[in-house]
Structures are given as structure tokens and as C-alpha cells.
Write a structure and sequence with these properties.
With about 280 residues, the chain is mainly α. It is about 30% helix and about 0% strand.
């Protein structure tokens, strides 16, 4: 699946990856988390994490996994943090301007979803096989891009589920068109419970793995080229030697949550998982 650059007449995209240096640590404050394997403590939405420092940096950034905050290492806001901090609120941070707190924390999760949608739509527009839906995708990208630059009131009033449903229809059609180019019978594991599944060496080319639970699954050496991975849960999945080139809608947070090695083949726009799979006993 060759990919083409976005047409020059489309509106430029914001940075769709986190730039923590230009964010007011919104993920560390606005979002809640529950004590679990991913987080060492409970934290309610709008409450700063106990590890957050006055300069908006994490006090245990280099020790997150060792101290029980694995969830922080796999989270990515798709660039929503710096957009809300520097554009929506014009560089006014919630500490110096406490009147912005409630609205800023409400806008952040909305912006994250918009940026995630932009990332998927932009990818779909690079896929030649999806040409029949490119007009709809172009319209969706332009409209979503305009929303990203909207004011806080517009963003908090936005019907995000309706927008997601509308765009998901286009992404699903994109998936069907692209995966149809993959030869052979394609497996349908949409939303399947594949937790801990033994899929080492499996032929999953062109498979539908949308929303599949692949937690701790053994995908070592599996061929996932052309597979649709939108929303798939890859936490602790073994991707050693797996081929994920030309997968559809694979994101960096998904890879960060998995376990891979230098032999894991990934799209050139992404980076290898930050932690490897332990050797077999």
C-alpha cells in the first residue's frame, strides 16, 4: 500500500503528537485515573497528580514504570495538550489564571478526540484505494480542522459522539476498500476477545481487528500487513518480529502499550515500543 502526500489545498494540520514543553501538564490534571496495574493511586479529574511539579514537569518521569505509573508511559494526547494550552487559552496556564481551570480541563478531552480523528482522516486521505471516499474525508478533515481552532465555548458544546460516528463511517469504508486489495480470505476479529491469544506467526493480513482485545496476546512473528487496528487494545502484546507495516490506523500509543523488539516491523512514521518483550524462560 503506497501512501501519497496530502493534497496542498487542504488546511494544514496541527502537530498531532504531544509537545509536553508547550503544555500545562493537562493530562496530569484534567484526566482521572483509578488505582490499578496502570496507576499506583486513585486520582479524580481536575486534581493534579501528586507527582506533578510546579514547573508542570513530572517528578518521576524517568521512573514511571518502576513506581506503578505504566499508564502514563503509553498515553499520548495526539498534540491536544499544546493546542489547548497555547491556542485555545492563548498561553494562560491554569495556575496563574485559576479562572481558566474548569473550562480548560473540560476542553482538553474534547480536543484530544478531535486530534485523534484528524490523525485517522489524514491517514485515510493518503491511501489510493480509498479514493471513492476521499471527497467525504476531505470535507471531514476541513470541518474538524476548523473545530480545532474554535473557542472554548464552541468546543465544550460540541457533540463529539455524533462527529465520531460520522467520521467513523468514512473510516470504515476506507478500511473495507483498502483491505479488499489484500489477497486471500481476511479474518474478521472486530471487537473480539483475544486476550492472551496464541497468534505467533499468524497470517492476519487484511484482518479486521477493530476494537479487538489483544492484551498480552502472543503476536510474535505475525503478519499484520493491511490489518485494521483502529481501537485495538495492544497492552503487553508480544510484537517481537511481527510485521505491522501498512497496517491501518495504528497509533503510537498502541505501540507504546505493546512489547516489541528491533525486529518488530512498523510504519516509518512511528517508533518502536519503548520496552521489549522479556525472553522466553
Amino acid at each position: 500500500m503506497s501512501k501519497l502526500p496530502l493534497p496542498p489545498d487542504l488546511p494544514p494540520l496541527p502537530l498531532l503528537q504531544a509537545d509536553c514543553g508547550n503544555c500545562f501538564a493537562l493530562c496530569c490534571v484534567a484526566l482521572p485515573f483509578a488505582k490499578s496495574a496502570d496507576f499506583a493511586v486513585n486520582k479524580s479529574a481536575g486534581t493534579p497528580c501528586k507527582n506533578l511539579q510546579q514547573d508542570f514537569r513530572c517528578g518521576i518521569h524517568t521512573r514511571l514504570r518502576d513506581t506503578g505509573f505504566q499508564g502514563c508511559t503509553v498515553f499520548d494526547c495526539f498534540g491536544a495538550g499544546q493546542q489547548v494550552s497555547q491556542v485555545t487559552f492563548g498561553g494562560r496556564d491554569w495556575r496563574a489564571h485559576p479562572e481558566t481551570r474548569a473550562e480548560m480541563f473540560e476542553v482538553f478531552p474534547v480536543m484530544r478526540q478531535l486530534h485523534e480523528l484528524l490523525r485517522y482522516v489524514a491517514e485515510a486521505l493518503t491511501l489510493p484505494a480509498a479514493a471513492p471516499v476521499h471527497p467525504g474525508l476531505r470535507e471531514a478533515l476541513t470541518r474538524t480542522r476548523q473545530l480545532v481552532d474554535a473557542d472554548a465555548h464552541t468546543l465544550t458544546a460540541l457533540d463529539v459522539p455524533a462527529l465520531r460516528q460520522e467520521i467513523n463511517t468514512l473510516l470504515l469504508k476506507t478500511s473495507e476498500l483498502v483491505r479488499a486489495k489484500t489477497p486471500g480470505r481476511k479474518k474478521n476479529h472486530r471487537g473480539a476477545d483475544l486476550i492472551g491469544a496464541r497468534l505467533s506467526g499468524a497470517d492476519l493480513r487484511g484482518a479486521n481487528l477493530r476494537g479487538a482485545y489483544l492484551i498480552a496476546a502472543d503476536l510474535s512473528g505475525a503478519d499484520l500487513r493491511g490489518a485494521d487496528l483502529i481501537g485495538a487494545d495492544l497492552r503487553d502484546a508480544n510484537l517481537a518480529g511481527a510485521d505491522l507495516r501498512d497496517t491501518l490506523f495504528l497509533t503510537q500509543p498502541q505501540l507504546n502499550a505493546a512489547q516489541g523488539t528491533p525486529t518488530t516491523h512498523i510504519p516509518p512514521t512511528l517508533t518502536h515500543p519503548t520496552h521489549g518483550h522479556p525472553p522466553a524462560p
